[in-house]
Amino acid sequence: MMVGSTALRAAFARRLSTMYGTEVPAYNTLVDVAQEVNGEVMERMGADAERLGSIGRVTAERHGAIRVGTPAELAQVARIFGSMGMYPVGYYDLREAAGSSVPVVSTAFRPVDEAELAANPFRVFTSMLVTGDRRFFDEDLERRLGEFLGARRLFPPRLLDLADRAEAEGGLDDAAAEEFLTLATRAFELSAEPVSRGWYAELERVSAVAADIGGVSSTHINHLTPRVLDIDALYARMSERGITMIDAIQGPPRWDGPDLLLRQTSFRALAEPRLFREEDGSVVRDDLRVRFGEVEARGIAVTPAGRALYDDLSAELDAMLHGRSVTAEERNELAAKLWEGRVPRSEAELVTGDLAYFTFHVRDARPGAVPPADLTTLLSEGWVSARPIVYEDFLPRSAAGIFQSNLTSDGTKDATRTGADFGPDALAAVLGRPLHDPYELYASVRAASLARVRAELGLDGEIALPGAS
Prior knowledge:
Elements lengths: L1 E3 H19 L1 H21 L9 H6 L1 E7 L2 H12 L4 E7 H4 L6 E7 L3 H6 L3 E7 L9 H13 L5 H13 L1 E3 H14 L7 E2 H10 L1 H7 L8 E4 L4 H10 L21 E6 L3 E7 L5 E7 L3 E6 L5 H18 L6 H15 L4 H6 L5 E5 L12 H6 L3 E5 L7 H10 L18 H8 L6 H20 L12
Parallel strand pairs: 2-5, 7-10
Antiparallel strand pairs: 1-6, 2-8, 3-4, 4-5, 9-12, 10-11, 13-14
C-alpha cells in the first residue's frame, strides 16, 4: 500500500511531537493547556471558534523550528520536507529583525495547496547561518566554522534517497514509509554526543544561535509549537502552573477587533543536561539553555496593504516607546489604542479596504435576477459571503523576538562591518526549487474562490475587487 505525502507529513508531525515531549516534558504541559483552552473557547463560541480552521485541524496543528549551518544542509532539508508535500514559502532575514546577534536567514517549509493545508498544515521554520556576514564572523572564524560544518553529516544517505523517491513517486510503500519516518525523526533528536566546551563558547560569544547551530555535530528540533485559540488565556494559565513564560506575547496586540496575522509566545528555554568535552579531553555533565516551548494563535492573512499598515503601526509604537520602560501589559494597551484608530473593526471593512484575504461563497443565487459584477455590492446585497483565509506564515520580528527572549546573551554584532548580501534569490538558488511568495499563494486562493462565484452566478466578466480600477 502506498503512503502518500499527506499521510507522511501527518505521521512525521505526530512522531516529532511524541519525541519532543519525551525530551522536553514541559512541551506536553503546553499541549495539554492549549487543548484545555481550545475546548473552553469552543464551548463559549461554538461554530465561530472554527472560523479560521476546524477544531480538528487546530488540535493537530504544529509548527517546528530547526537550524542548519550550510547551503548544502539546507538543500538536504528541502529534499526531506519536499517528500512530505512541504515547500519553501517566504524569506525571513533575522539578521535585520533582531536587536541581538541572530546571524541567520530563514524560510518555512509547508504545504501550499488549500486542501493540503486543511488536511495537515505542518510547517517547519528553518534557519541557516550566514557565515560570510562580517558583522558576526571574521575571516578566521568563518574558515574554522566552515571546516567544522563541512565535516559533519546531519542526514544519512538512506534518508535522502527515500526522500527523493517519495517526492518523485508521490509516496512510499508501507515498509519504506516506516523506515523513512524512523530515520527522519531520529535526525532531529537531541544528540548525546559531547559538545566541545571551548568551540561552543567561542561561537556563543558571537551568537547563542550560532553556537546552537555550529557548535554541535547534529541538528535538532529547537521548538515545536501547538496552536491555541486564546493565547492570552494560555499565557496566564501556564504561569499559574509554575511555567516561566517570556515577558510578552509577540505580534499584534490583544484588542476587540479581528484577529490578524500571528501572535506567539513561549516558555523560557530550559536547562537541559548535556555532555561537554573539556580542553584536557575529559567529559563532564553540564547544561545548556537552548530549547523552549512556543505556542501560537493564528489570525487572518493580510494583503500587502494590510501588512504595510501593520508595519507602520509597529514603527509608530516603537517611536512612542523609545527610551521608555513599560510593562508588557502597558505596551499592549498602547498598541491596542493605535490599532483602534487605524485598523477596521469588522471583517467586512477588511474586505472593502483590501486589507486582508478572504474566500467568497455564493449564498443566494436568485434565479432570474442579474447579479452585480463588483465584490463590494455582491457582499452588501447578500449574494455572497466571505470567509477569512488563515495566515499560514511568520513574522520575522516576532520570530526574532522569541529567539531573543530565550537567548543566554545578546552576543556581539559589529555594525561597522558590511553585511553579506543573501536575499531571496540566493536562498532559492541554495534550495534548488522555487521560493514561494506568501502573498501570491493567498491571492491565488482568493482568485479561485471568485472564479467559482462567477461560474455559479453566471457572470461573464471578472468580479471587480475593492479598489480595482
